[in-house]
Amino acid sequence: MTYYHQRVLAMTKALYPHRDQAERIALAKQYIDKHYGSILNLDRVAKEACMSKFHFIRLFTRYYGQTPHVYLRDVRMMHARRLLKQGIPIRHVCYAVGFDSVPSFTRLFRQRTGLTPKRAILDKKIPAGTFIFVKSRKP
Amino acid sequence: MKIKLASLFVKDQDKALAFYTDILGFVKKTEIPMGEHKWLTVVSKEEQDGVELVLEPMAFEPARVFQQALFEAGIPFTAFHVDNVEKEFARLEKLGVIFSMKPTSMGAVKLAVFDDTCGNNIQIVQV
Questions:
Q1: Which residues contact B52 (CB under 8 A, 6 or more apart)?
Q2: Interchain proximity A4–B49, CB inside 8 Å
């Protein structure tokens, strides 16, 4: 057994002694992965892990290094980017990834990716490496 | 500032390209001849506009010592995400890949470590 493998086993024993707890947290994460497009509330997700909301938030953050709320937001943004690249209209994407307001979706998308949703669609239409020749204006 | 590249030292760039494409399933993105070596990058088939992995030639002795020490301790140089560690482990093992750590749970994640045949341990992670 390598030094690294020994360290992984030792850290698992020290930090994550409750195997069933880890499995319940993983189940709740899978629930988020599957239902990101729905209106999700933390009570519902915590129920998947059979825990109270506050206990769930604390444990999820310990296991995954980010709060369930931030994780859900990132999953939604990842799927939004994928759908926009397929050319799906912004409004449809917004609702498909669980938002109920286009302006708040647009604001968050821009904050997280540095692009507006419209720009994300346009970027897909311009294949990487393509040179765009713009006709210069006559003086 | 954006993170677009991640680098990995490899003993032989051609051998590494074959391993990372034929065995792991990545796709070559760029190959630019640069004298004795080349600028060589691969990307994930599922995220071809994602982060590029640079297969860097090992041409600096102290780096060789560093790589060797990590390898002998079984420490992964880098890690790749997979949907299912067990399935990927079975697929790679069938292709002759040698694992120094078989699928192992750590908290809510599952890990495994294999030899990339180019001097590195690589970890696959199921989150």
A1: B4, B5, B6, B29, B30, B41, B42, B43
A2: no
